[in-house]
Amino acid sequence: MSAPRDQHFLVDQRAVEKIAGFVDVSGRRVLEIGPGEGVLTRALLDRGATVVAVEVDPALVEELEFLFADEIAEGCLQLVPGDATKVDFPPFDIVVANLPYSASSKITFRLLESGFEVAVLMYQKEFARRMIARPGKPGVGRLSVMVQTYASVKPLLELSPNSFRPKPQVRSWVVRITPHEPPYPLADRGVYADVVRVLFSYRRKTVRKALRSGKDAFAPEAIERAIAGLPDDLLQLRPEDLSLEEFALIANRMSGCLHDELPARG
Protein backbone atom coordinates (compact mmCIF):
# COMPACT_ATOMS: atom_id res chain seq x y z
CA MET A 1 0.00 0.00 0.00
CA SER A 2 1.32 3.47 -0.86
CA ALA A 3 1.62 6.04 1.92
CA PRO A 4 -0.73 9.02 1.99
CA ARG A 5 0.85 12.45 1.76
CA ASP A 6 2.91 13.31 4.87
CA GLN A 7 2.71 9.75 6.21
CA HIS A 8 5.84 7.65 6.50
CA PHE A 9 5.29 4.07 7.58
CA LEU A 10 7.71 2.75 10.20
CA VAL A 11 9.18 -0.48 8.79
CA ASP A 12 12.15 -1.01 11.14
CA GLN A 13 10.83 -3.83 13.33
CA ARG A 14 13.55 -3.40 15.96
CA ALA A 15 12.55 0.25 16.32
CA VAL A 16 8.90 -0.77 16.59
CA GLU A 17 9.69 -3.14 19.45
CA LYS A 18 11.74 -0.50 21.25
CA ILE A 19 9.04 2.16 20.94
CA ALA A 20 6.31 -0.20 22.14
CA GLY A 21 8.47 -1.19 25.10
CA PHE A 22 9.57 2.21 26.37
CA VAL A 23 6.60 2.32 28.77
CA ASP A 24 4.59 -0.47 30.36
CA VAL A 25 1.32 -0.56 28.43
CA SER A 26 -0.08 -3.81 29.83
CA GLY A 27 -3.69 -3.32 30.92
CA ARG A 28 -3.65 0.35 29.89
CA ARG A 29 -5.67 2.30 27.33
CA VAL A 30 -3.14 3.55 24.79
CA LEU A 31 -3.90 6.29 22.26
CA GLU A 32 -2.12 5.76 18.94
CA ILE A 33 -2.32 8.56 16.39
CA GLY A 34 -1.65 7.61 12.79
CA PRO A 35 -1.42 3.80 13.06
CA GLY A 36 -0.77 3.49 9.32
CA GLU A 37 -0.37 -0.19 8.46
CA GLY A 38 -0.65 -1.24 12.10
CA VAL A 39 2.86 -2.47 12.92
CA LEU A 40 3.07 -0.43 16.13
CA THR A 41 -0.58 -1.23 16.85
CA ARG A 42 0.27 -4.94 16.75
CA ALA A 43 3.25 -4.48 19.07
CA LEU A 44 1.13 -2.58 21.60
CA LEU A 45 -1.64 -5.20 21.50
CA ASP A 46 0.93 -7.97 21.95
CA ARG A 47 2.04 -6.22 25.16
CA GLY A 48 -1.46 -6.29 26.60
CA ALA A 49 -2.61 -2.76 25.75
CA THR A 50 -6.11 -1.74 24.80
CA VAL A 51 -5.46 0.52 21.82
CA VAL A 52 -7.47 3.51 20.62
CA ALA A 53 -6.16 4.23 17.12
CA VAL A 54 -7.00 7.50 15.33
CA GLU A 55 -6.50 7.35 11.56
CA VAL A 56 -7.41 10.06 9.05
CA ASP A 57 -7.05 8.03 5.85
CA PRO A 58 -10.22 6.05 4.97
CA ALA A 59 -8.29 3.45 2.95
CA LEU A 60 -6.03 2.73 5.92
CA VAL A 61 -9.02 2.53 8.26
CA GLU A 62 -10.54 -0.10 5.97
CA GLU A 63 -7.27 -2.05 5.88
CA LEU A 64 -6.91 -1.90 9.67
CA GLU A 65 -10.50 -3.09 10.14
CA PHE A 66 -9.63 -6.15 8.06
CA LEU A 67 -6.23 -6.82 9.71
CA PHE A 68 -7.52 -6.43 13.26
CA ALA A 69 -11.06 -7.76 12.92
CA ASP A 70 -10.60 -10.17 15.85
CA GLU A 71 -9.10 -7.54 18.16
CA ILE A 72 -11.88 -5.08 17.32
CA ALA A 73 -14.50 -7.75 18.04
CA GLU A 74 -12.83 -8.54 21.37
CA GLY A 75 -12.73 -4.87 22.37
CA CYS A 76 -8.91 -4.71 22.44
CA LEU A 77 -8.78 -2.18 19.59
CA GLN A 78 -11.00 0.81 18.88
CA LEU A 79 -10.54 2.50 15.51
CA VAL A 80 -11.45 6.19 15.39
CA PRO A 81 -11.64 7.56 11.82
CA GLY A 82 -10.79 11.25 11.63
CA ASP A 83 -8.29 14.06 11.93
CA ALA A 84 -6.37 13.89 15.23
CA THR A 85 -6.26 17.68 15.40
CA LYS A 86 -10.08 17.80 15.56
CA VAL A 87 -11.71 14.46 16.39
CA ASP A 88 -12.84 13.75 19.94
CA PHE A 89 -10.47 11.39 21.72
CA PRO A 90 -12.04 8.50 23.65
CA PRO A 91 -10.64 8.06 27.20
CA PHE A 92 -6.97 7.01 27.30
CA ASP A 93 -4.08 6.75 29.78
CA ILE A 94 -0.93 6.70 27.66
CA VAL A 95 0.00 7.89 24.17
CA VAL A 96 2.33 6.01 21.82
CA ALA A 97 2.46 7.34 18.27
CA ASN A 98 4.42 8.21 15.17
CA LEU A 99 2.96 11.68 14.59
CA PRO A 100 2.53 13.20 11.11
CA TYR A 101 5.16 15.92 10.71
CA SER A 102 2.78 18.62 9.48
CA ALA A 103 0.42 18.27 12.47
CA SER A 104 2.98 17.64 15.21
CA SER A 105 2.56 21.01 16.89
CA LYS A 106 -1.26 21.04 16.89
CA ILE A 107 -1.49 17.45 18.12
CA THR A 108 1.10 18.00 20.86
CA PHE A 109 -0.78 21.03 22.22
CA ARG A 110 -4.06 19.06 22.05
CA LEU A 111 -2.56 16.18 23.98
CA LEU A 112 -1.17 18.46 26.68
CA GLU A 113 -4.63 19.99 27.09
CA SER A 114 -6.30 16.57 27.14
CA GLY A 115 -4.08 15.15 29.88
CA PHE A 116 -2.26 11.82 29.96
CA GLU A 117 0.14 9.91 32.22
CA VAL A 118 3.05 9.58 29.80
CA ALA A 119 3.57 9.73 26.04
CA VAL A 120 6.13 8.17 23.72
CA LEU A 121 5.99 10.18 20.51
CA MET A 122 8.00 10.32 17.32
CA TYR A 123 8.80 13.68 15.74
CA GLN A 124 11.00 15.18 13.09
CA LYS A 125 14.36 15.59 14.82
CA GLU A 126 14.55 19.37 14.49
CA PHE A 127 11.02 19.74 15.84
CA ALA A 128 11.91 17.63 18.88
CA ARG A 129 15.08 19.65 19.42
CA ARG A 130 12.96 22.80 19.61
CA MET A 131 10.82 21.13 22.27
CA ILE A 132 13.83 20.77 24.57
CA ALA A 133 15.50 24.12 23.78
CA ARG A 134 15.93 25.82 27.13
CA PRO A 135 14.30 29.21 27.76
CA GLY A 136 16.89 31.95 27.43
CA LYS A 137 18.98 29.84 25.01
CA PRO A 138 19.24 29.85 21.19
CA GLY A 139 16.46 27.95 19.43
CA VAL A 140 13.82 28.55 22.09
CA GLY A 141 10.33 29.36 20.86
CA ARG A 142 6.65 29.09 21.67
CA LEU A 143 6.78 25.30 21.42
CA SER A 144 9.70 25.09 23.87
CA VAL A 145 8.05 27.29 26.48
CA MET A 146 4.58 25.75 26.30
CA VAL A 147 5.80 22.15 26.37
CA GLN A 148 8.31 22.71 29.19
CA THR A 149 5.73 24.60 31.24
CA TYR A 150 3.51 21.53 31.37
CA ALA A 151 5.81 18.55 30.81
CA SER A 152 9.33 17.15 30.83
CA VAL A 153 10.75 15.81 27.58
CA LYS A 154 13.44 13.13 27.28
CA PRO A 155 14.91 11.93 23.95
CA LEU A 156 14.89 8.12 23.73
CA LEU A 157 15.80 7.07 20.20
CA GLU A 158 17.01 8.55 16.90
CA LEU A 159 15.92 6.98 13.61
CA SER A 160 17.33 7.45 10.11
CA PRO A 161 15.18 7.81 6.98
CA ASN A 162 15.93 4.13 6.25
CA SER A 163 13.53 3.16 9.07
CA PHE A 164 10.55 4.35 7.02
CA ARG A 165 8.70 3.80 3.76
CA PRO A 166 8.76 6.09 1.89
CA LYS A 167 11.98 7.57 3.26
CA PRO A 168 11.54 11.08 4.71
CA GLN A 169 14.12 13.77 4.04
CA VAL A 170 14.88 14.17 7.74
CA ARG A 171 15.90 12.14 10.76
CA SER A 172 13.40 11.40 13.51
CA TRP A 173 13.48 11.40 17.30
CA VAL A 174 11.38 9.37 19.68
CA VAL A 175 10.85 11.20 22.99
CA ARG A 176 9.12 10.53 26.29
CA ILE A 177 6.81 13.32 27.47
CA THR A 178 5.78 13.28 31.13
CA PRO A 179 3.22 15.92 32.20
CA HIS A 180 3.76 17.93 35.38
CA GLU A 181 2.26 20.97 37.04
CA PRO A 182 3.69 24.33 35.91
CA PRO A 183 6.87 25.15 37.83
CA TYR A 184 5.49 28.60 38.71
CA PRO A 185 1.91 29.60 39.67
CA LEU A 186 -0.28 30.63 36.74
CA ALA A 187 -3.35 32.73 37.43
CA ASP A 188 -4.94 31.88 34.07
CA ARG A 189 -3.56 29.23 31.72
CA GLY A 190 -5.42 30.69 28.74
CA VAL A 191 -3.84 34.10 29.30
CA TYR A 192 -0.44 32.41 29.71
CA ALA A 193 -0.84 30.67 26.33
CA ASP A 194 -1.84 33.98 24.69
CA VAL A 195 1.10 35.83 26.23
CA VAL A 196 3.59 33.22 25.01
CA ARG A 197 2.02 33.25 21.54
CA VAL A 198 2.04 37.05 21.30
CA LEU A 199 5.60 37.44 22.56
CA PHE A 200 7.02 34.91 20.10
CA SER A 201 4.99 36.44 17.27
CA TYR A 202 7.18 39.51 17.83
CA ARG A 203 10.31 37.76 19.05
CA ARG A 204 12.71 40.36 17.59
CA LYS A 205 11.07 43.16 19.57
CA THR A 206 11.56 43.93 23.24
CA VAL A 207 8.97 42.53 25.64
CA ARG A 208 7.47 46.00 26.04
CA LYS A 209 7.02 46.49 22.27
CA ALA A 210 5.89 42.90 21.72
CA LEU A 211 3.15 43.21 24.34
CA ARG A 212 1.96 46.46 22.80
CA SER A 213 1.77 44.68 19.44
CA GLY A 214 -0.56 42.05 20.90
CA LYS A 215 -3.82 43.97 20.55
CA ASP A 216 -5.47 40.95 18.92
CA ALA A 217 -5.25 39.11 22.24
CA PHE A 218 -5.48 41.83 24.91
CA ALA A 219 -7.18 45.16 25.38
CA PRO A 220 -4.75 48.12 25.21
CA GLU A 221 -5.58 49.15 28.79
CA ALA A 222 -4.77 45.64 30.06
CA ILE A 223 -1.44 45.73 28.23
CA GLU A 224 -0.52 49.10 29.70
CA ARG A 225 -1.57 48.00 33.19
CA ALA A 226 0.62 44.91 32.91
CA ILE A 227 3.59 46.88 31.58
CA ALA A 228 3.29 49.33 34.48
CA GLY A 229 3.62 46.43 36.92
CA LEU A 230 6.66 44.78 35.33
CA PRO A 231 10.35 45.51 36.04
CA ASP A 232 11.96 47.77 33.44
CA ASP A 233 14.91 45.44 32.88
CA LEU A 234 12.51 42.61 32.01
CA LEU A 235 10.60 44.83 29.57
CA GLN A 236 13.85 45.56 27.72
CA LEU A 237 14.56 41.87 27.06
CA ARG A 238 13.56 39.96 23.94
CA PRO A 239 11.10 37.07 24.39
CA GLU A 240 13.74 34.44 23.62
CA ASP A 241 15.76 35.67 26.62
CA LEU A 242 12.98 35.13 29.16
CA SER A 243 12.89 32.33 31.72
CA LEU A 244 9.76 30.28 32.42
CA GLU A 245 9.37 32.22 35.65
CA GLU A 246 9.40 35.51 33.76
CA PHE A 247 6.80 34.29 31.27
CA ALA A 248 4.64 33.33 34.25
CA LEU A 249 5.12 36.76 35.84
CA ILE A 250 4.12 38.58 32.64
CA ALA A 251 1.02 36.40 32.22
CA ASN A 252 0.02 36.87 35.85
CA ARG A 253 0.36 40.64 35.48
CA MET A 254 -1.80 40.46 32.37
CA SER A 255 -4.35 38.48 34.41
CA GLY A 256 -4.40 41.24 37.02
CA CYS A 257 -2.34 39.43 39.68
CA LEU A 258 0.11 41.69 41.45
CA HIS A 259 2.11 39.18 43.51
CA ASP A 260 4.92 36.68 42.79
CA GLU A 261 7.78 39.16 42.64
CA LEU A 262 10.84 38.00 40.71
CA PRO A 263 14.30 37.92 42.23
CA ALA A 264 16.85 40.12 40.49
CA ARG A 265 18.40 38.60 37.37
CA GLY A 266 21.89 37.37 38.07
From TrEMBL:
A single GO cellular-component term on record: cytoplasm
Pfam family, one: RrnaAD
Compartment(s) of residence: Cytoplasm
E.C. no: 2.1.1.-
GO molecular function, one term: rRNA (adenine-N6,N6-)-dimethyltransferase activity
Positions with a binding annotation for S-adenosyl-L-methionine: 8, 10, 34, 55, 83, 98
Main location: cytoplasm
Domain Ribosomal RNA adenine methylase transferase N-terminal per the UniProt entry, residue ranges: 15-181
SMART domains: rADc
Keywords tagged on the record: Cytoplasm, Methyltransferase, RNA-binding, rRNA processing, S-adenosyl-L-methionine, Transferase
Gene3D superfamilies xrefs: Ribosomal RNA adenine dimethylase-like, domain 2, Vaccinia Virus protein VP39
Domain of life: Archaea
The protein's name in its UniProt record: Probable ribosomal RNA small subunit methyltransferase A
